[in-house]
Amino acid sequence: MSPCSGLLIRHAQPHDWQRVTAVMPQWWGGRDLRVMLPSIFFEHFRTTSFVAEREEELVGFLVGFLCPTHADEAYVHFAGVHPVWRRAGLARDLYGRFCEVARADGRRSVRAVTSVVNRDSIAFHQRLGFLLLPGDLEIDGLPATGEPSVPEGAIVRFELRLDDLAAPAAAPEAATEAATRQTEGRG
Ligand SMILES: CC(C)(COP(=O)(O)OP(=O)(O)OC[C@H]1O[C@@H](n2cnc3c(N)ncnc32)[C@H](O)[C@@H]1OP(=O)(O)O)[C@@H](O)C(=O)NCCC(=O)NCCS
User: Fold this and answer.
1) Which CATH class is domain 8-177?
2) Residues 42-53 pLDDT 10s
């Protein structure tokens, strides 16, 4: 059974901003990063951003864009999954959809960053095949880069080469009603 059975996954809309930012502190374990995700992302990057819902409850999201400066790159700005729904493949599915949109636009790589303290995010990105990019610092053995916009002051940078991906991880349709089978024990 697909891990995302019973979910509606669709492109983000402006009205999603409020509900996404309402859950961020809890989903990020108390870290408050909402200032880094203003509502303009949900206005201007709808076609490269996704939300996942179960019976109208928000269970996941990804906000990304096609980089206007570097024509071969796309960038995931934020992604989050409801704690109850983690380790079920939902973020992998959302990244797969984003990668397909990026690939269709001729992008050859996807970049992302995360705070150096966010070990879950680092492990997740590495599991998806992202490589750590060099930084100007080393923190706990990780290549880090000073970044004053995050509370901890340092990030790690990732890159996924789309050429290296064997097969798309998810369909790129604008709005996909997942299979009607229910995922037991969740929601
Ligand atoms: C990071 C996050 C988005 C992962 O979401 P998820 O839906 O649980 O991830 P998936 O289930 O799709 O996992 C994909 C792969 O990564 C692995 N993975 C996910 N979280 C992991 C963790 N904490 N440690 C190690 N591996 C992990 C999974 O085991 C899976 O591997 P597999 O497919 O080979 O079995 C989620 O933990 C989250 O929302 N964290 C808080 C917000 C955050 O930090 N966002 C990222 C920075 S913007």
Assistant:
1) alpha beta
2) 999 999 999 999
